UniProtKB/TrEMBL annotation:
InterPro entries: CB, DNA_brk_join_enz, Integrase-like_cat_sf, Integrase_catalytic, Integrase_recombinase_N, Integrase_SAM-like_N, Tyrosine_recombinase_XerCD. Keywords: DNA integration, DNA recombination, DNA-binding. This is Tyrosine recombinase XerC. Transmembrane segments: none annotated. Residues 72-156 form the Core-binding (CB) domain. Residues 178-384 form the Tyr recombinase domain. It comes from the Bacteria. Coiled coil: none annotated. The keyword Transcription regulation does not apply. It comes from Terrisporobacter mayombei. The gene is xerC_4. The keyword Nucleotide-binding does not apply. Site-specific tyrosine recombinase, which acts by catalyzing the cutting and rejoining of the recombining DNA molecules. PANTHER family: INTA PROTEIN, PHAGE INTEGRASE-RELATED.
Amino acid sequence: MAKRRSNGEGSIVKNMRNGIQIGWRASITIGTDDKGKLVRKQFTGKTQQDVKNKLQEYKKQMLMGVLNEDKLTVSDWFYSWLFDYRKQDLKPKSFQRYHGIYKNYIENTDFGNIKLNDLRTTHLQRHYKKLLDNGITPTTIRQINTNLKTCLNEAERQGYIQKNWCKLVTLPKKEDNKEVKVFTKEEQEKFLEAIKGHELELLYIVALGTGLRIGEILGLKWSDIDFKNNELHVNRSLQKAAIYEDDKIVRYEVQETTPKTKNSLRTIPVPQNIIKKLRTHKNEQNELILLLQEEYNNKNYVFCNKLGRPIEDKRPGRNLKTILTSIGIEPIKFHALRHTYATRLFEAGIPPKTVQHLMGHSDIETTMNIYTHVMKEQKLEAVDKINSIFA
């Protein structure tokens, strides 16, 4: 076996008591007990640097190979890898997703109890078949394998396993892409008429006119709006994410994060009539700030409640469903407004590569896979034009 370093890099978090920060806390996995459960050592201090120094000093003194490879299970390793290696560099939502995979599909399962150095592709294959038989979708199983593959890369690098067995698994086929639900042009006009005067009217208009994700819309600040050039810059996303103490969720907080991918950092041209509405909205917000003064929590957000606080991210979707039901349109999810924006672009003949950049997709395949329903119509139109040649 290759020489390996001590188990974890350790994690450093705020030390909270009754919702108030009293300092900082560091923790590191140092081994397993007689029952095979992970043993974690903790350090506390007044400052982040204090606990960082304590952690670094302890790591220097740790003997190599503290973890007993004969006892270390897949579940133990995934937990250690997630909290000691990845917690500090994953976005809150991403960490929450990894933690969900661990809690739902690895912890306290026959698969999770397999000793790490005994793991083989057959174990993974059996586990995925069992999940599939219990109604877990192929998409979820593929996500589990993706997360496990990343986790086992580190185990392979340190010499705990001979190879990353996830790379040899035969995964279930992806489900057929469900047809993307979007507004027809008539439905979009009917919806825009129905939301006139609604508190979230401008938020819906911006969604339909820019294709921003809900987190990107809620994260918009006035500094991101370029009134001179009629464009906006996507620089951040606002997300409600879980806050953990060890492996337990203690509360949820709204946090600013960087957008979903590097391509999500983008500049989008905004229709002039929407720019005018944004300017009016800014003037109205400024009047409210002057009126409320200290009571207004001014974080410079474009969309917020009347006290300046972020809008709850589920609210636009709930309101959308209510509005659509009231006007006789089949309800669609808020994210479908983003798809509607892209559909209108395709219908206008905008090249797919341009649509990709406007949407912030990481690759053109994502764009094309989602909007095949529009491309199908364009193909039929092209065939009709060719047919006319032979009439």
